[in-house]
Specification:
- The chain is of the alpha/beta class.
- It has 19 helices and 12 strands.
- The strands form 3 sheets. The protein has a 5-stranded parallel sheet with strand order 9-10-11-8-12, with helices on both faces. A 4-stranded mixed sheet has the order 1-2-3-4.
- Helix 4 runs parallel beside helix 5, helix 10 crosses helix 11 and helix 18 crosses helix 19.
Length: 475
């Protein structure tokens, strides 16, 4: 019967796979898979969890692709359905090799030839000057998989506005900054994906600053290739550059400056991410810095408890795993630094439970977090740093925040700035605003001064060490 064709196809695939992989691998990773449907050349299968799906994609993708092509032909595709938990509906995910955003081909009016394509993100088209641009967007990093909270609300709102009217809002460029693991890349890619969904005719490109720099270095070494490199980037409708703080070489900055000018003047959308705000970027040309400040700069901060818990619940659902609220609350309380560490802890917990065939418990969560996070994190704020400094030097907070130029008050204030910079993930401008309304340059000078004094004055170094121990007690 036609309705059973998907079962027949999958059983044939299993017979082939069983001859290729180890018996234990076959029993653990292939027997639990259940065929669901076959539409044209797309086979949908149900897997127990999202972790299960990711493991298949990482370890057995080639085996699956070759086996399916043998059964269904060159156009064979595989789609996964994660087994639903309780009464929630199943969620369908495309296999990693399909459904990624695609750009239209573009014409490069330059000396561009197939041999001169600027880097691996460009694929030759059907004509000499026609190229197909891979947008480099991961469909997993969409707005639907992004948890909104106070930590990223402004960035999400700006991103959604940009996706509606790219290049036509005041948010151009959009500059997203914050510490590692706070969702900068996810948000930047989500903007690109949303733009492709709403405006499929636009050419969108996501590229890391390091890759851009490497492509530039390759381009300058070949005759006419630099012209092609510039011509290529000037054809983008939306350019997303990740970790822009890495564009430190003068030649790269000069090329990027001209690309920026052309795109911005042409009404194209620019999105950048950085681990620091524009005012804190080091070794950047002033003309480029001024342009990075043109649009909207948004700081992504550490997620609060409610946002961390919401992320854990959403990711657990995506994994197809039902986890007791007590466990999720424990993780949200224990892992506070960033989304990446929180998500990594959850995945490790699910992986351990899945492979050991055990239920996820608080005790297991305690063991996993101890191995990943270590000692319980201390929630440090600028307010707590101020209190520690005031207690240590026996001064009042009003005195610390005053305009007093007495040497001991100035040094106490500088130490507060230095410790805040070291222990808290926030910008220099934020630290300065909280410590007497100082600007970022004053904070940067204070941090440099304290660092220098610590190398030549043992007593001064002990002050700083003692205060840091008050905030982060050692075991």
């Amino acid at each position: 019967m036609l309705s059973e064709k998907h079962t027949l196809v999958w059983n044939n695939c299993l017979k082939i796979i069983e001859q290729i992989v180890e018996p234990q691998q076959f029993a653990v990773w292939f027997k639990p898979i259940r065929p669901v449907s076959l539409v044209d050349s797309t086979l949908t299968v149900e897997v127990p969890t999202e972790f299960f799906r990711e493991y298949l994609e990482d370890c057995f993708l080639d085996v699956l692709k070759k086996t399916l092509k043998r059964e269904l032909g060159a156009g064979a595709k595989l789609q996964y359905m994660v087994k639903p938990v309780t009464v929630q509906p199943p969620m369908t995910y495309p296999a990693a090799h399909g459904h990624a955003p695609v750009n239209r081909a573009i014409n490069i009016s330059s000396s561009c030839s197939q041999a001169a394509n600027p880097g691996p993100i460009v694929f030759p088209g059907t004509a000499v000057h026609r190229v197909q641009v891979n947008p480099q967007l991961n469909p997993i990093y969409c707005f639907g998989n992004l948890i909104e909270g106070e930590c990223n609300k402004m960035g999400v709102t700006a991103g959604e506005s940009i996706s509606d009217s790219p290049g036509k809002t005041p948010f151009n460029p959009l500059f997203l900054f914050g510490g590692p693991g706070l969702g900068k890349t996810h948000l930047a890619q989500a903007i690109g994906i949303a733009i492709k969904e709403k405006h499929p005719e636009l050419v969108v490109l996501y590229v890391s600053a390091n890759r851009f720099k490497t492509q530039y270095m390759d381009a300058v070494s070949v005759k006419n290739k630099l012209v092609d490199f510039l011509a290529f980037y000037m054809k983008m409708d939306v350019l997303i550059v990740d970790d822009i703080q890495e564009l430190v070489s003068p030649g790269t900055q000069n090329a990027f400056f001209h690309i920026f000018n052309h795109l911005h003047q042409s009404g194209k959308q620019l999105v950048f991410t950085s681990d620091r705000p524009p005012v804190d970027l080091q070794n950047f040309e002033e003309r480029l810095l001024s342009r990075l400040k043109w649009g909207l700069s948004v700081e992504l901060t550490r997620p609060d408890f409610a946002t961390r818990l919401a992320m854990l619940k959403a990711r657990s659902f995506r994994e197809g795993v039902s986890i007791n609220d007590d466990v999720l609350i424990y993780l949200a309380t224990r892992v506070t630094s960033n989304f990446r560490e929180l998500e990594g802890t959850l995945i490790s917990l699910i992986a351990n439970a899945t492979l050991a065939h055990k239920e996820v418990t608080v005790e297991m969560a305690e063991h996993i977090t101890e191995n990943i996070v270590g000692e319980k994190e201390i929630d440090i704020t600028i307010d707590k740093v101020q209190k520690a400094v005031c207690d240590y030097f026996s001064i009042t907070r009003d005195t610390l925040l005053s305009k007093s130029r007495k040497r001991q008050i100035v040094q106490a204030r500088q130490i507060a700035m230095y410790v805040s910079r070291n222990l808290i993930n926030c910008s220099l401008a934020t630290i300065g605003a909280e410590l007497g309304g100082k600007d970022h340059a004053t904070v940067l000078h204070a941090c440099t001064t304290v660092s220098d004094l610590m190398t030549i004055d043992k007593s001064f170094k002990q002050y700083v060490t003692d205060i840091e121990k008050m905030l982060v007690p050692v075991r």
